[in-house]
Each structure stands twice: as C-alpha cells, then as structure tokens.
Amino acid sequence: MTATAIRPADSASDGALTHRQILTILSGLVMGMFLAALDQTIVSTAIKTIGNDLHDLQAQAWVTTAFLITSTIAAPLFGKLSDIYGRKRLFMLAIVIFVVGSALCGLSTSMYELAGFRAFQGIGAGGIMPLALAVIGDIIPPRERARYQGYMMAVFASASVLGPVIGGLLAGTTDFLGVSGWRLIFYINVPIAVAALIVIARVLKLDYVRRERRIDWWGSILLVVGLVPMLVVAEQGQSWGWTSPASFACYFVGTAGLIAFVWVQHRMGDDALLPLRLFRSRTFSVASGQVAIIGAAMFGGLSVLPLYLQIVKGASPTKSGLLLLPLVAGLMTASLVAGRLIARTGHYKIFPVVGSVLMVIGMGLLITLRADTALWSTDIYMAIFGIGLGLNMQSLILAMQNAVPAKDMGVASAASAFFRSIGGTLGTAIFLSILFTVAGTKIAQQYAHAATNPAFIAAAKANPGQVALLHQNLSGGLDDTSFLSGLAKPLAEPFYAGFSQAGDIVFAVVMILLVGAVVLSLCLKEVPLRLVSGNQARAQASEAGGAVAPAESASDMAADVVRAATLDEIAGVAIDDESVARRNEE
C-alpha cells in the first residue's frame, strides 16, 4: 500500500489549523449540509399536497423510503472512498448528483416516478452529510470539535426551520410562472447547490492521504441485496400480507444478503465498507445501535406529525411547517448547549442518557394527542422531544469518531450516517405502514359510533351529497383527503378522531423503541476525548515512522494523548514535510 500526504501550504507543521482557517473551511461545509438538511424537511409538510396532486397519498412512504435507501447505501461507500482518495472531490460530486436528482424530481408525473428520482437524489445526499462530518474530524480535535459542531447544528436547525416553512409555502402555491408550487420545492435546490459548489471549490483546502486499496464493490452490492428486500416488505407488507409468499421471499433474500455482506466485510478486512474491527470498540458498537434507534424515531415517528397537523388540525402546509418550529428550536438549543459543555468539561456520556430519557417522555406525551388537543400542548410535547434529540445528535457522532483511529475518520462518520439512515428508512416504512393499516379500522370504528350521534344523523340528512362523497372516498382508501374540507363538521369529526387514534398507536410503538435507546445510553463507555485532530494524529504517526497500527485500539490512542502534558507539547512536534513525502515514496 502506498500513501501520499498532501497538506495546504498555510497549515501548521503539526497539521493544526487556526480558528480563522477552520471557519473558512466550515463555511464551505455548511453550504453543503444546508442543502441536504433543507431537503430532508422541505418535503415533509408538502407530501400531502404532492400525494393529492399525483392522486396517490398512500404511496408517500416510497418517496421518503427511496431517498433513505440510496442515501443509506451510498454513505459507507462515500466514506470509504474519501479515506482513500480525499474528501473534496467526492464532496463536490455528491452535491452534483444531489442537485441533478432534485431537478428530475421537479419533473415527476406520478408518486412512483418521484420516488425513483428521489432515490437518485439520495445517492448524493448519502455523501454530503458524512463527508462534512469527516472533514470536521480531520481538522478539529474531539475536545474542541463539539464547539464547532454547534455551528453546524445551528445551520442544520436553521435548514430544518426553513424547510417546513418553505415547503409549506410553496406547496400552498397553486401555480408560479406556470409551475406547480410543490415542484419548486425541488428546483430551489439548484441555485443553492451552485453557490455551495463555488464556495467549496474556493475554500475547502485540507490534508488528505492517498492510499492504494481495494474498493469493496461486492460489499456494496450485497448491502443492496440485503437492505432493499427488507425495506420493500416493510412498505408493502400491509397489502401483501406479512405471511404471504412475496413477504417470505423478501425475508429470505434480505437475510441471505445481510449474512453474505457480513462475510464479505470479514474477508475484506481493512478494505471493507464497514471494517468489523471497529465494532470491537464497545463505544462504537453501542453508539451505532443508539444512532439507529434515534434515526427510526426521528424520521419514522415524526413523519406522522405533519400529517396529524394537516389532516386532523386542518393546518395549511405553511402553517404546519411553522407549527414544527418548537421541535426544531429545542433541537438547536440543546445541540448548542451540549457542544459548549462538552468542549468545557470533556465529558459527553451524560447527554445521550438525558436526551434519550427526554425523547421517551416527549413521545409518551404525544400519545395523548387527540383531535381536539390544543396546539400549545402539541408544541410543548414536540419541544421536549426536540431537546432530547439535540442532546443525542452530535454527542453520539463525536463518540463514534473519537473511538476509532484517525485513518478511519471517513468510515466512522459514514457509519454514523449509515446507521441513522438504516433506522430512519425502516422506521419510515414500518411506522407509516402501521399508520395507514390502523387508520382505516380506527376511522371505521369512529363512524360506527357516530351513527347514533344526533348531530351526525342531522348533518347526514341535511347533506346527502356529502355522505355519498364520504362513502366514495372511504371505500377507495386514503389516497386523497382533500374532500374533508368540503364536509360538514359533524361528518368530518369521526375521520379526524380515527386518524388521531391511529397516530397514537405509532407514537406508542416509537416510545417503546426509545426505551432501548435509554438502555444503550447507560451502556455507553466514555472514551477520553483526544486532544489532537485527525490530521495531527496522522502527522504524528508519519513522524513516528509509519501509519498507526490497525491493532491499536481507540482507547489506547486516547490514553496516550491524554498523558501528554499540554496542548503546547503536542503542537510542539515539528514535522518536515519534505522528509515525510520522501519517506512515503520510499
């Protein structure tokens, strides 16, 4: 294996960068992160409008699931390739793929066509988030990283705030310059992407190590074989039947694919997409499991909230986006506070523990939502959940990055995105499947009870045309709920009550799942935060005469660094770039 280290001329001799240099690089990263984060939330408040316009609301899970499938599979591949070829080119490639997919999404004529283009878009998104986190890991020591990640979380939160609002605003616009409002949701990515590419090309200058290693194509293929059938059956199980031949075929193919994937990862060793040696670290393993559970709760469980606000509370897409602001505000505030405290104290375990407990409490409160629940109560419940989510997000990423050698920074960052996407993909498919499976039964039960209600009987007699419209739409499923706005209030209330009860069941399942996150957070082993960045660690390894041995554990590396007297002693190691390059050539 050969390696060539490339370092910008203005960096310090030990690989450290000044605060100004870090902020310059950070400006390029947050542009890309803003692009990906905006797209994760901008569709949520518009999905009802899109489903109604394309006449297939029940297929909405495919639009989200397809995006998550491809981003899940792409994340570890981008992470591994960035460890070999460097971050910048791959980061820019991911943005280009993402924006091309966005433009195609705006041309969709059906929900399944939109899902296909979202799948292509997801390939780019799979590279943006983990590569941005990997670059931060390269240039900032873990102890100080939490402070800078607070800036990134602020950008992420800002995009999350703007996403639902812009999505709702555009979805509520019937036509703009001859284009349906919801299509502009995808076209808006184009100018942002162009700006991001310009900034990144100009300011993103960082070290990278070129390594001649094998690319785990078989692992990528088997990951597709293992994940796609499982996700398909999660989405289609309700219509096929969970014990149908088609479902069992997906179970078999998916299980076989995942077993083969693990076997290939073992055979590939350090060249694997997800090297199995990383899971020898208790911190890395536990954090990976917790990230997956939180991803399921974040993407899957909360996908019900915009539907509840729009269908049950009658909020417009724009208003439903604004109603999600308490959740995002809680997330942003908790992330910034956690980052500051981690940088000051050097301890991070307490934040996933407290955060997971708050997420359980918040989701438990959401179970109490009814059709007539006041919106201020919903805001409080969402804020509690958001605070718990914010305490978990960057602390778990930091734990995973700190638990692996510096040469695996890309893989560790990608693993965080990978397991979050795994949880989110399965959560979205399963929880929305549960929602629409149960909703029909709950709505029917509510109408059966309403049949003896004098107000319902009177409204039905006074509006026979509305009753016929109601029967017609209920018999056809929940593909289009726009008819509800034309019904008399007594005729629509049973629908709202039934849909709300179906959402409560989803929230209950998510809460039970989050109890597992609390248990895992208690099992998380806190490894002392390293005082050097990824670049500094590689520079020290080169000065010592070679790369860090693969057998060296993350805890040993951390202990060695902690034993250093001060940061000045670490930064005082002088490295001759020419001698490093000469040694690598030899």
Measured as a percent range, the helix fraction is over 70%
Number of helices: 24
Give the CA-based shape.
globular
Strand residues, percent: under 5%
The helix-and-strand class reads mainly alpha
**Could you give a short account of the major beta sheet?**
2 strands, antiparallel
What is the β-strand count?
2
Task: Give a verbal description of the structure.
The chain has a two-stranded antiparallel ribbon. The chain is built from 24 helices and two strands. It has helices at 19-42, 47-53, 60-85, 88-105, 111-139, 142-171, 184-187, 189-203, 217-240, 245-268, 282-300, 304-312, 317-323, 325-345, 350-366, 375-402, 409-450, 454-462, 464-475, 489-523, 534-543, 554-562, 567-571, 577-585; strands at 3-6, 208-211. By secondary structure, it is mostly helical. The radius of gyration is 25 Å and the shape is globular. Helix 11 (282-300) packs parallel to helix 17 (409-450).
Question: What are the main properties of this structure?
Answer:
586 residues; disordered C terminus; mainly alpha; disordered N terminus
Secondary structure: elements and pairs:
Elements: E1 3-6, H1 19-42, H2 47-53, H3 60-85, H4 88-105, H5 111-139, H6 142-171, H7 184-187, H8 189-203, E2 208-211, H9 217-240, H10 245-268, H11 282-300, H12 304-312, H13 317-323, H14 325-345, H15 350-366, H16 375-402, H17 409-450, H18 454-462, H19 464-475, H20 489-523, H21 534-543, H22 554-562, H23 567-571, H24 577-585
Antiparallel strand pairs: 1-2
Helix pairs in contact: 1-5, 1-6, 1-8, 3-5, 3-9, 3-17, 4-5, 4-8, 5-17, 6-13, 6-14, 6-16, 9-10, 9-17, 11-16, 11-17, 11-20, 12-20, 14-16, 15-16, 15-20, 16-17, 17-20
